[in-house]
Amino acid sequence: MSLQSELTFIGLGLNSEKNMSLLGLVEAKKADTVYIELYTSLMPELDLKRLEKLIGKHVHMIFRRDLEEDSGKRILESASKGKTVFLVPGDPLMATTHVDLRIRAEKQGLRTRIVHGASIVSAVIGLSGLQNYKFGRSVTIPLNNTISLDATPYNVIGENLRTGLHTLCFLDIRAEEKRFMTIKNALDVLLTLEKSKQQRIIRDETLAVGIARAGSDNPAVKADYAKQLQKYDFGKPPHTLVFPGKLHFMEAEALVGLAKAPREILEMTK
User: Does the model's pTM come out above 0.85?
Assistant: First the structure.
């Protein structure tokens, strides 16, 4: 094993290569080998050739099968021979496959380091004005969801709402298939589940916040009741959905002022 054996996880942040931190850029420039994965999140304006020009070296693409089926063998072998960088959308260890890769690297005696990047979690909180300490368990709403397949998102939202907590819903991304769940798709799934479960968790009058293209110059942020939000044009993905729990008066004012929520929600805090 080389004395320079090292694997550095670098978060690319959101939307494009311009959102990578200065530290991330410096570390990528020093690397012997650079890998990137783009299947865990969508970065709409990222250009691989621009990224390669920025860091001054070729960037090798990593696919889902490389991490999930081959356990990151390509990356680990590279890291055992020299300084290796793994570029990841958002913050680098938000995905469990990346955590698993880091654990494997450490077990093999490789030094690992992390350069953090902006994540959809922090972006949603900032764009909506909701308070970070009032979020409960987050959940992913998968594509091809049916009542018989998976009611987990519906149940998680219900658990959080019962304790007054907000729910961040990640909307499924199949980047390799160019399939991305939209806010309308997600609401359709949840309202269909409501018809089956009838627990009065997600109804037409349930308040929700939709956010699209966080980190770009033109993010869409809109808060409204589910029935109205289904009709709103959020534009291109990636999309994210939030179900607020009990609102602090400042959160309600933020949703009205920043997300154009109905003013009547201000009464919900009194």
Answer: yes
Please report which confidence band the pLDDT of residue 150 belongs to, taking 50, 70 and 90 as the band edges.
confident
DSSP string, 198-234: -SSSS-TT-EEEEEESTTSSS-EEEEEEHHHHTT---
> CA–CA separation, 132 vs 125, rounded Å?
6
- Report the topology of domain 120-269: 3.30.950
> Does the 6-115 domain belong in CATH 3.40.1010.10?
yes
Distance separating alpha carbons of residues 237 and 107, to the nearest angstrom: 37
Average pLDDT on 171-197 reads 91
CATH 3.40.1010.10 in the chain is located at 6-115
C-alpha span between 100 and 22 (Å, rounded): 26
**Where along the chain do the CATH 3.30.950.10 domains lie?**
120-269
Structure confidence at residue 187 (pLDDT): 96
Residue closest to 215 by CA, chosen among 54, 55, 12: 12
